[in-house]
Design brief:
Layout: E1 4-13, E2 17-27, E3 32-36, H1 43-51, E4 58-63, E5 66-67, E6 78-81, H2 93-103, H3 108-121, H4 137-149, E7 155-159, H5 167-184, E8 188-192, H6 195-201, E9 204-209, E10 212-217, H7 219-224, H8 229-234, E11 241-249, E12 255-259, E13 269-271, H9 274-283, E14 288-293, E15 298-299, E16 314-326, E17 329-336, E18 339-346, E19 356-361, E20 367-370
Parallel strand pairs: 3-8, 3-9, 6-7, 7-8
Antiparallel strand pairs: 1-2, 1-4, 4-5, 9-10, 11-12, 11-14, 12-13, 14-20, 15-19, 16-17, 16-19, 17-18
């Protein structure tokens, strides 16, 4: 296995359309890197450039210490698993897995050994004589992965391989892929639009938007310290709440975030913790800002003082707009201080549209961003 490095890679189509802009990535040997973003962000184009299926307009791609930018796909020593499986319907599972090796004139005994090893690894041994039409979607995807494994490539590329599966099968196949990665110790680069897949699978997540890398970091870092508003809003379910406002003084005289609000609504005031004040002083941020608040950070009961900050939770008197039951939890859309926000709280049978509810916000769990779609985290 080998590392994969992209150095200031651009892809520009005729007419000056920039699909990928200055993409930098270092996937270390054995890492599972997930590139995630919305439709049209350039993630699949990036993967296809690594595979050699798209030409690079500018920049360089290295696999290990070998520059492959100008090499054909078959010369790059990679294996790619596609969204639609790309299996031959008239061939058996065995023949689908072994076809690439046969075309490379690998000895028959070696082919048999590799196919058998891959089949055991992927629990396909009993299915080797079947045709693809006799398999479930998850089994077909495992066959496609098996075809990649037997090649023993430098790295594996996955282009939204689970998007055709139903929710239950997608979850189980995702777990299988994670276990497979651990067993193989392989370098894997995986593209998806599903942020839950990214959080579950990745050692490193690369968030893309508008052809550019927005942030590359481990899943917890992406979730807890998003680089900008776009990353914060994209990663996490339900999406982060955003409230416009500015920094000023609360009624108590303490430094606080003060929300924008209409005249007939009270203003949302959230005191800044000492750590937040220090960070904001260092960045010298002025003017309009956005409060970012994850639904999971809004409580239905008052928490105790927050660690060593000495800052108490803020009470929020709200009105229920609607609820979405999720078993032992529920997503709550509520109105407060002239804004509609979401919270994820324990399920409560007593809540209905129009009900009054008291919620609590912990200041240390608040994020602040510069105003604008790509506003940086303050």
């Amino acid at each position: 296995m080998a590392s994969v490095s992209l150095q200031s890679v651009w892809k520009t189509y005729p007419g000056g359309v920039h699909a990928v802009r200055g993409f930098d990535l270092d996937a270390q040997h054995g890492q599972f890197v997930v590139i995630v973003g919305g439709s049209g962000c350039g993630k699949s184009t990036t993967l296809r450039m690594i595979a050699g299926l798209e030409t690079v307009t500018k920049g360089e791609i290295l696999i290990g210490d070998r520059a492959v930018t100008e090499l054909k796909a078959k010369e790059r020593d990679i294996a790619m698993v596609f969204q639609n499986y790309a299996l031959y319907p008239h061939l058996s599972v065995y023949d689908n897995i072994s076809l690439g090796l046969k075309m490379r004139r690998v000895p028959k005994q070696v082919i048999r050994e590799r196919v058998q090893q891959a089949a055991e690894l992927l629990e396909l041994t009993e299915l080797l004589r079947r045709k693809p039409r006799a398999l479930s979607g998850g089994q077909r995807q495992r066959v496609a992965v098996g075809r990649a494994i037997v090649r023993e490539p430098s790295c594996f590329l996955f282009d939204e391989p689970l998007s055709n599966l139903d929710a239950k099968l997608r979850a189980s196949t995702r777990a299988e892929l994670k276990q497979l990665h651990r067993r193989l110790g392989a370098t894997m680069i995986y593209v998806t639009h599903d942020q839950e897949e990214a959080m579950t699978l990745a050692d490193q997540i690369c968030v893309m938007a508008d052809g550019r890398v927005q942030q590359i970091a481990p899943p917890f870092e992406i979730y807890s310290h998003p680089a900008n508003r776009l990353v914060a809003g994209f990663m996490g379910t339900p999406s982060m709440n955003f409230v416009p406002g500015h920094f000023g003084q609360a009624a108590t005289g303490a430094a606080a975030f003060l929300s924008d609000t209409a005249d007939d609504h009270p203003r949302l005031e959230i005191p800044l913790t000492a750590e937040q004040r220090q960070r904001l002083d260092q960045q010298q941020s002025d003017g309009r800002v956005l409060l970012g608040l994850r639904p999971q950070s809004i409580r239905e009961s008052a928490p105790s003082d927050i660690g060593d900050t000495g800052t108490h939770a803020c009470r929020l008197d709200a009105t229920v707009v609607f609820t979405e039951p999720l078993g032992d939890q529920m997503d709550l859309l509520f109105s407060a201080c002239g804004h509609e926000l979401r919270a994820r709280i324990p399920a409560s049978a007593g809540l209905s549209p129009g009900s009054a509810i008291r919620l609590w916000i912990e200041p240390e769990l608040c994020h602040y961003f510069e105003d604008g779609e790509y506003g940086r985290r303050l």
